[in-house]
Amino acid sequence: MREFSRDGATVILILLHTVVTATGAVEEGIFTNHFLVQLHEQTDDAARQLATEHGFDSVRKLPFGEGLFHFYPKDIPQARRRRSLQHKQRLEKDHRVKSVFEQEGFGRRKRGYRDINDIDAKMNDPLFTKQWYLINTGQADGTPGLDLNVAEAWELGYTGKGVTIAIMDDGIDYLHPDLASNYNAEASYDFSSNDPYPYPRYTDDWFNSHGTRCAGEVSAAANNNICGVGVAYNSKVAGIRMLDQPFMTDIIEASSISHMPQVIDIYSASWGPTDDGKTVDGPRELTLQAMADGVNKGRGGKGSIYVWASGDGGSYDDCNCDGYASSMWTISINSAINDGRTALYDESCSSTLASTFSNGRKRNPEAGVATTDLYGNCTLRHSGTSAAAPEAAGVFALALEANPDLTWRDMQHLTVLTSKRNQLHDEVHQWRRNGVGLEFNHLFGYGVLDAGGMVKMAKEWKTVPERFHCVAGSVQESHKFTSDKSLVLTITTDACQGKDNFVRYLEHVQAVITVNTSRRGDLNINMTSPAGTKSILLSRRPRDDDTKVGFDKWPFMTTHTWGEDPRGTWVLEVGFKGDSPQRGIMKEWTLMLHGTQSAPYIDQIVRDYQSKLAMSKKQELEEELDEAVERSLETLMSKN
Ligand SMILES: *[C@@H]1O[C@H](CO)[C@@H](O)[C@H](O)[C@H]1NC(C)=O
Ligand SMILES: *[C@@H]1O[C@H](CO)[C@@H](O)[C@H](O)[C@H]1NC(C)=O
Ligand SMILES: *[C@@H]1O[C@H](CO)[C@@H](O)[C@H](O)[C@H]1NC(C)=O
Ligand SMILES: [Ca+2]
Ligand SMILES: [Ca+2]
Ligand SMILES: [Ca+2]
C-alpha cells in the first residue's frame, strides 16, 4: 500500500484489495447486525425513537457526515452469513429514513498472537503430539502455549541443518532408528573406554539410557514414523561417551569438551558435581583451560557453545556452588514443568541464564519428556534438568543455522533478549526487572527459550562489540560476622573508565569470595548493583555442614545485571540463615566486571526502532483506510 488518493469509491476497492493480500484475513460475506442509518431529521431524540421502534437497543450519532446514525444491538456484534433483510427493509420503508446500509464485517488480526491451531507442523511420528515441550496445546494437563516455540522457527525453515551438537554423556545408541540418520560418527568418541564408538553399556537397570534420551531431544529424525521429533531434527548429533567409568578425571573432562571444536558447534552437558547440597566443586585446571580454548578458538574463533544443566539438587542446593553451571563460558539452563512451575529438583542461582522444560511433580505419565530410548525404543519419561539442556542445545542449533556467524557471546545475548517469562511461575522468588528493564527470575533466569524469537533475531544479528574485563575493586581485610550481625561491604567503582578495559555495558559479573564459617550451609550472600539489582549469590544449603573449607577464591557469578552500567557503588550482604547461631570470617571480595565499552545492541535498537516506525505507519495507513471507507459511504449516500 504505497500511495492512494483520498476520495471516491475506486480508492476503496484498491484499498480493500490491498488489505486482502496483505493480511489474507478478510472474510467475505460476513454481515453484522450493525446499521448505518441516514435520517431526514437529525436530532438525537428522533433517532432514538426510531431505533427503539425498530428493535435496536442502542443508537449513536456519528461524528462524521450529516444525519448519520449507528443503530446496533447491545450484545457483541454477531457475524452472520446473510444480510438482515427484514431489518433493512423495514428501516428503508420508514419515511423518516433517507438510507440504510448494513455494516459488513472484515478481518483485522491481533498482532503478535499465534493460534495454536494455526501451527502447520504435520509430523507422522507417533510421539510427536506427546512432545508438549515442542508444541504445548495443553497435553497432560499442561498450559497451552508454554513451549519452546519451535514451530515458528521450523516454519521459517530452520531445522538445524549444518549444525553438529555433541552430547557429552554415557553414550548414544547410534543404531537407534530415529537417531542413525542424524548421527555424526566422525565427530564422536568414547573417552570412557578410549575408542571411536560411544555406544552405551547396556545394563539391566537402564542406567546408561541418559545420553540416548538426550540425543533424541536434539536430533531425532522427523516424519519417519518413529518415536518423536528433535528440536533441531535436521541437525547432526555426535556422541561423546565420558560418564561411564568409575572415576572422572580432569583429562577425560578436558578431552571431552575440547573434542573436535572445529566440527562440533554445540556441546551439551547434563552432569556436574554431585547435587547433594553440600558439594562445592568446579572444573579443574585442564578443563578450565579447555573451556577457555573452546570459547576463544572453537568454531573458527567464534567459540564453542557449551550448554549446561543447572543441576538436580532442588531447593537444598545452589547452582552457584557448581563451577560448571556458574561458569561464564557455559549457558546454564534450568527447567520448568508443563504448567510453568518449577520441577522440584530445580536448583536456583544467579548464574542461570534461561530455562527449557522437563517433568516432575505431576503424576500424569505423559507430562514427562518424550524421546528416544535404549533398545530402539521410545520413552515418555525422560526427566531432570538433564532433559532441559539438550532442548536448549537444539534451540541454539536452530539459531546457528539462521546465522552461523554467531559467537558464543552472541548466543548468550540472544538468550537474554528473546527468552520469555511466558507463563512461568516461581512461588519463592519474584520476577523483577534489572537496571535496563530486562525481566529475570532467580530460578528461571531470563525465562523460557523462544526458538522463533531467537532465529528471527539471530538472522539480523550483528556480532556484539569486543569484550573487556575490569577488576572493579577488592576488599581484602578480614571481617567477622555472626547470625546476629550480618556484614555489609561496598565497592565503589568507575569500572576502569579512562583505561583500555573500561566496561560500560555489563555481560557477566563475578564476585570472587574467600570466606569461612562455622557452618557453610547457613551462609547467605547477596550483591546489589549500582542500578539496584539484587542478585542472590548464595542461598542456604541446609545439608552443607562444612566448617573448615568455606569458599576459597570462589567465583560467584550473576547474569542478572546484564546490560547495566556498572559504575557506582556495589553492595555485598553476607549473613546466616538457619536455626543455630553461626559465625564467619570474610577474607576477600573481589568484583570482576565483564562486558563491552560500546553499546552492544545499537544497531539492533536502531533497526527495532525502524521496524516499529514502519509498523506505526502501517497502523496509520489502516486507520486512513477505515476513514476512507467511512467517507466513501458518505459519498455513496449523498448520491442517493
Ligand atoms: C518398549 O516400550 C514399550 C512401551 O513402553 C514396552 O512395552 C516394551 O517392553 C519396550 N521394549 C523393550 C525391549 O524394552
Ligand atoms: C576458618 O579457617 C581457619 C583456618 O584457615 C580455621 O582455623 C577456622 O577454625 C575456620 N573457621 C572459622 C569460623 O573461622
Ligand atoms: C538476601 O536477600 C534475601 C531476599 O531479598 C533476604 O531474604 C536475605 O535476608 C538477604 N540476606 C542478607 C544477608 O542480607
Ligand atoms: Ca566404546
Ligand atoms: Ca522420529
Ligand atoms: Ca548442584
Automatic annotation (TrEMBL):
Its main location: secreted. Keywords: Cleavage on pair of basic residues, Disulfide bond, Glycoprotein, Hydrolase, Protease, Secreted, Serine protease, Signal, Zymogen. GO terms for cellular component: extracellular space; membrane; neuron projection. Its EC number is 3.4.21.94. GO terms for molecular function: serine-type endopeptidase activity. The active site is at D169, H210, S386. It is an enzyme of class 3 (hydrolase). Transmembrane segments: none annotated. Residues 463-599 form the P/Homo B domain. It is found in: Secreted. Residues 1-24 form the signal peptide. GO terms for biological process: peptide hormone processing. Coiled coil: none annotated. It catalyses: Release of protein hormones and neuropeptides from their precursors, generally by hydrolysis of -Lys-Arg-|- bonds. Serine endopeptidase which is involved in the processing of hormone and other protein precursors at sites comprised of pairs of basic amino acid residues. Responsible for the release of glucagon from proglucagon in pancreatic A cells. Belongs to the peptidase S8 family. Furin subfamily. This is Neuroendocrine convertase 2. It comes from Megalops atlanticus.
